[in-house]
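Justification of resources, computational component.

The compute hours requested in this renewal are based largely on the per-chain cost of generating structure records like the one below. Each record pairs the submitted sequence with a full structure-token output. That output is archived, and it is also reused by downstream analysis tasks.
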Amino acid sequence: MTTTAENAKNLKSAEDAEDPVAYAAEPAPRLDWAALAPDVYKAMIRLDAAARQGLDPTLCELVKIRASQINHCALCIDMHSKDALAAGESVERIIQLSAWEESRHFYTEKELAALELTEAVTVLTDGFVPDEVYERAARHFEEAELAQLLAAITVINAWNRFGVTCRRTPGHYRPGRHT
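The structure output for this chain reads:
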């Protein structure tokens, strides 16, 4: 069994080796939409800040991560996972988000209602949010808070569309940069 110090030494040796592990090349973004449409980007930042008002920050990050997982937005998964960790969220709960229905015991009933609503709003393949999903969320959130939650879900879905379409690359975000 190797110690942490031995692992660090082995990693350093691998970094110094002439033939280090080769990772896939980082793809270049397609379009720097924020620079090309700065007024839209600034409006999105303001909209995002307005949508978060009155919501529990941890719950908001969980919702953003889950919607981003569904939409395959690697940039937003990276960003919101880092922000959640920086805010004190556990690694375990973040990891379990992709299988929250099988991992219900990691979340409160209120968080479960928010995650279920996030999925229903994000994936509108049936053309509507089922009444039972909305009613469950309405039981756990005051009307004003529910309106803010819906706004937060909608905004992260818009961010995801920009991120995925423009192929924004993950891995460079530092926690708290956009909060």
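The chain has a mean pLDDT of 89. Residues 49 and 179 are 8 Å apart (CA to CA).
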